[in-house]
Every structure is written in structure tokens, then in C-alpha cells.
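[Q] Does anyone have a clean C-alpha cell version of this?
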Amino acid sequence: MATAPPQSLEPPWRVTSLERLFRRSSLFRWQLKTNDTPQIKSGLQDHWRGSATVGGRIIEAGDRLHFDGQAFDDFGWLRDLRAFGGSQARSHARQLIEIWLRQNQNWHPLRWQPDMMGDRLTNLVANYSWYGESATSEFQDNLARSIASQARCLALDWRRMNSPTSRLRALRGLATAEAALGGSESEMTSLLDLAIPMINHMLNEDGGLRNRMPDSQIMTLRLLIELRSAASFANVVEDKRLDEIISRMGAVARMWRHGDGHLAHFNGAGMLNPEIIEETLLRAGPRGKVLQQAPYSGFLRFSSGRSTVIMDAGSPLSQDANGEDTACGFGTLSFEFSIGPMQLVVNAGQTAADTNLNRLLCSTSAHSTLALDEHNSSNPAQNRMANISGVEVGPAEGGLLAVASHDGYEASHGILHHRQIYLATGGANLRGSDRLEYTGAPGEIPRQAIIRFHLHPKVSAAMLGNGQVLMKIRGNRAGWIFKAANTTVSLDNSVFFDAGIRQSCQQIVLRTPISSIRTIGSNEVKWAFLRSDPR
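[A] Here you go.
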């Protein structure tokens, strides 16, 4: 079985040993100082909600509170204290800021890493109106000097980040700090001139990220919304480039969203809760009509009644076009199926830190699609990646039809996979077919085609005597019947990951012997999900 691509061992940014030595000197601290007395302009707002529960815990910890690494240094906890509210939370925020300022007057390779510094400056500035306006003049002056010094350092270093996303995090922080320190309209426009080409290089023409990762799409949108706020605060109002990019990205992100607010579990998605997704998309432009196809990013979405199908109809990437590792989901032609706020057919979920678990979650078998002999449909180690062809979606007689093919098994088995999914008008009938075609190419003779349909944890399934499967969705009166032809149907256990939580679930498994496919040329399995309304 193919493995997911290894995570890069390269340091996240480039700074030599000699540079590190110089940056710890008084000469470098002097270089970062400004001749003017900086002042922070209040008025920038933090768009994102914090957790009052977490804020309460921070206050309860008092002076015993200790964060490790990013949890303290990015200052994201400020919005948690703000959510808790009250003068005690405000005073505690200032106390923690003062502690950090005393302990971090000198450059540090981790705490002053450009992307970390970009997050910190954004959080400090965006929440300043809440904690800083009522502070003493001494506190305001010390904080302004620190922000100015960090911004000067960030201006030197943001290009050193290896990852485009990290460079964007840093540049967004620099723009936010410059806006709060009174940067001019022309200075902000210059920063946008640096950011826009970098952002465009990360995107497909339809607005989806080239890494095809839904969670990453949302988090990048948040960076751009913050960058747009900084530009607006600096009176850059005529430049509409960011508005157009955010609108396109938001349209693609909405394609992946189920009725319960969660994102479809493609390419590592599943770590974000619906509240984060909702507050992001609310600021990503008008909702409008949901896209049916993102042709460059490779996704389809079609709905009828309360039923929605979201399908991966794109080629996977072992490494995206910017050189960043992707979540590497080998679920080509997989789909998810939901009815209103209830999910029925899903994929297993996000990537994990554990190498073996990550390999499992990236595998074709962890997705609702077809696999040959438990081999992944793509294998980067063998330079075998599935190419997509024949993608179409649109009206068909009595409903909507999506078709697509991939050649991921051609180099290994001489096989093409063709999938059709049909959703009848009203959404009560979802039918599909998976057809395997022998191309005549050499390779391993396949023994078995295995089609999996992973079921959401709220779905309970049981085999019926006629080889069909009865499904009930918790909280839904209607049941669903699954049936298939030219195959053997069984139920098995599965897992589903959402927001880092592992949940047990079931999967429908179809097993079809195909060792004779080179003789007969093709093999087709037809299947259907039919709603069974209560009498």
C-alpha cells in the first residue's frame, strides 16, 4: 500500500548561525528602534469570536498560567479573555502582555519567527481597542515600541519563510501593524502589491487553493479578511483586488459545506468546527448561488430537495504547486451525501500526527470510492497519480447526473475507473455505477474491486435477508435502503474523525471478483440509496 508523503524536515525559515548571533546583539536591537515615538491607532477590530470558557480558565490560573510555545506567543488567547469580558479579564490581558514584553525584549528564533510574529501582531492590534485604550500611558508606550520593533523585524524577515502560507501570515501581520502605527495609503498599497501575486499563485482560477484542502481554504480566507481590514483601516478603499479573491475563495468553500455546517472530509478536512466556518464565510462576500462545479480545483456539488452530493473529481497532489506538503487524500472520485443537516455517506476524516493513522486516513480505503485489491488509486512513491477525465455534471432525465473517470490504476493494472452518480429530483433516490475498463496495458492482474461507503456515526445500519442494507439516521424518521447488483454486499466497522475526535461508525462494503476482466474487457457494479418514508 502506498504511503502518504513524508512531512518536510526542512526548517520553516532560513536564518544562518551567524545571523542568529548578530540578532542577539545590542546592535540589532538598536537597528530595530525608531527615532519617532510610535503610537497605536485604535479602531481595528478582531472579526473572530473567542471562547469565554477558555477565558475563564485563563483568569482562574492567574500568575500560575504558563503557555508553551505558540499557545502563548501568538496571543490568540486575547480573544478568549475578551469573550469572557469584564474589567478583570481586561486587566489580566494587560498583565500577561507586560510579562511577555519583559521576557522578550531580545530576538528569539522561535518567538520571533515571521509567521508567529504575524499572528501575534495581528492579535495584539485587533484587540487593542478592548484592552489597550483604558491602559496607562506607560503600558501603551511600551507596547507601541515593541510592536514597532517587531514590525521592523518582520519587514526584514517575512520573505525568509519557506511556505507561501507562512509568508502570507507574516505579511498580513506586517500590514496590520503598519496600519495601526499610522502607515500611509501608499505604503499599504505597496504591501498589497507584494501579497496579491503571492496569493494568486496559491490559487486555481476558480478560487480554490491548489492544495485542494478545505480546512486550509477557510484558514487562508481568514488571513485575507484580516489583510483586507488592515488595508481599509489605512484608507485603501479603491483597491478591489482582495474583495474579488475573497469572493471567489468563499464560493468554492461553500461548495464543501454540508447542511450541518461542517465541511466535507476531503484532503484532511474535519479539524474546524462549524462556528469558525460560519463566521469566516459571513465575511467572505454575498452568499449567492452555490457553485455546482469548481473545474480547476476538481470538485462537484449537486442538490435536489434536501439531499446534497459533494464529489472529489480532481487529481490528487502529493505536493502542491507551491512546494508545500498536502494532506494527500487518495480518495479520487469519492463523495459525501447528506440530507438536510444529517450526513449519511462520509469519508473518514482529517490527517493525524501518528504516522500509521495518517497513512490509513489518506488511503483510498478511507474514502467512499473504489479500490483495487486494497491498493491506493495514487502512489506518489511510484510516481503513479490518478489523472481525471470526462468530468461532467448537470441535468439528466428526472434528476441530476455527475460523471468522471480516472486512470490511477492504469500503470499498475491497466484499468480505468469510471463513476456515475445520479440524484433523482426530490433527493429520495441516489443511484450510481462504478465501471472498470481494461485498456490492454500491462500490469498486475486485479483480483477484486472493493467499493466502500463509510456511514456517519449517527447512522445505524443492519443487513436485511435479501442482501440489502437498512439505514436509520438518528433523529430522522425516514430510513434509507441500500442495494447493489453484480457484487457481494456486507457491513463492516469503520472510524470517523471530526475536530480531532475519533468516533466509531459503520461502512457498507461491496466486493466483486474481477480476475477475468482482461478477457471480458470491463466490469460494472450498480448501487443505490433509496429513501424509505415511514408509513
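[Q] Thanks! Anything notable?
[A] The CA atoms of residues 307 and 339 lie 4 Å apart.
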